């Protein structure tokens, strides 16, 4: 019986080994080499031990990219998408189905739009001669170079706009699963709207909230196209997150070994955050 089960699962195991574990193992190995696209290292790749990691943690640009990644992650994923997604789902809970359908389509439109398209749309909106500055001009407000003066805030806002729909779907499903009897009983007991939200709704959907937090965090850690198309990581290094820094080192500076080491750190950060979230869910 166990042999049959193993044979049925063997194709899945092989696919996981090839397309999941294989790249992870290769990434782990290449991060300890001086692999490059040009020069002597391209012809003769050598094992360099922890040199890439020593260089990384001594690199001021790496420290800047880590700080930008933390700010971008907390502001746009942990706070922004969670709050916006929950608020939209909560406010639509008791609304009529046609209203929910229209709002849902409008919110989902931003999520299903490819990142590169979203980036160009918002670039046209936030640029010096963009739509936002034109509207501000009608109000007598001088134009603002949003992507130059407030680059990190701009990409955070765009990412919230683009990704909040996923959180909305997660919370909408969780809110719809709350038994109406529980809410009716809390009303009868005299609980106001805030008490019902804080003591009834949030504890019940806690599991969905943590699951959503894990998925949104991992997705936000890997955001590349949106930032790169909007700002290119600039001006300077103000919007250079770890994926942007990794790309620059690997494919602009041609240092594949160093870029792979950065990607390994990014992978470890994602795994660590996921374990923290899961641990929090179990302890709570």
Automatic annotation (TrEMBL):
Keywords: Cell membrane, Membrane, Transmembrane, Transmembrane helix, Transport. It comes from the Bacteria. It holds the Pfam family BPD_transp_1. The chain crosses the membrane at residues 7-30, 70-91, 103-124, 144-161, 209-230, 256-278. It is found in: Cell membrane. The keyword Transmembrane helix applies. Residues 67-277 form the ABC transmembrane type-1 domain. It is a multi-pass membrane protein. InterPro entries: MetI-like, MetI-like_sf. The keyword Ligase does not apply. Its main location: membrane. Belongs to the binding-protein-dependent transport system permease family. This is Sugar ABC transporter permease. It comes from Virgibacillus halodenitrificans. The lineage of its organism: Bacteria, Bacillati, Bacillota, Bacilli, Bacillales.
């Amino acid at each position: 019986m166990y042999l049959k089960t193993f044979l049925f699962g063997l194709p899945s195991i092989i696919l996981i080994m090839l397309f999941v574990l294989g790249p992870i193992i290769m990434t782990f190995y290449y991060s300890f080499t001086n692999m490059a696209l040009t020069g002597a290292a391209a012809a003769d790749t050598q094992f360099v031990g922890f040199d890439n990691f020593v260089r990384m943690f001594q690199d001021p640009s790496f420290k800047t990219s880590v700080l930008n990644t933390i700010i971008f992650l907390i502001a746009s994923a942990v706070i922004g998408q969670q709050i916006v997604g929950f608020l939209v789902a909560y406010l639509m809970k008791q609304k009529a189905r046609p209203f929910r359908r229209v709002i849902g389509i409008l919110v989902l439109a931003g999520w299903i739009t490819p990142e590169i398209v979203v980036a160009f749309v918002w670039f046209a909106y936030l640029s010096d001669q963009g739509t936002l500055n034109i509207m501000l001009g009608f109000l007598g407000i001088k134009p603002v170079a949003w992507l130059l003066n407030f680059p990190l805030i701009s990409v955070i806002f765009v990412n919230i706009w683009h990704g909040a729909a996923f959180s909305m779907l997660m919370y909408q499903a969780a809110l719809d699963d709350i038994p109406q009897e529980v809410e009716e009983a809390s009303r009868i007991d005299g609980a106001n709207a805030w008490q019902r939200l804080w003591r009834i709704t949030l504890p019940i959907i806690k599991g969905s909230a943590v699951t959503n937090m894990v998925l949104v965090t991992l997705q936000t850690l890997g955001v590349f196209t949106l930032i790169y198309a909007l700002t290119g990581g600039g001006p300077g290094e103000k919007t250079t997150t770890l994926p942007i820094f990794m790309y620059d080192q690997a494919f602009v500076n041609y240092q594949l070994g160093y870029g792979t080491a950065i990607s390994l750190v990014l992978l470890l950060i994602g795994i660590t955050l996921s374990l923290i979230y899961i641990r929090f869910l179990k302890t709570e």
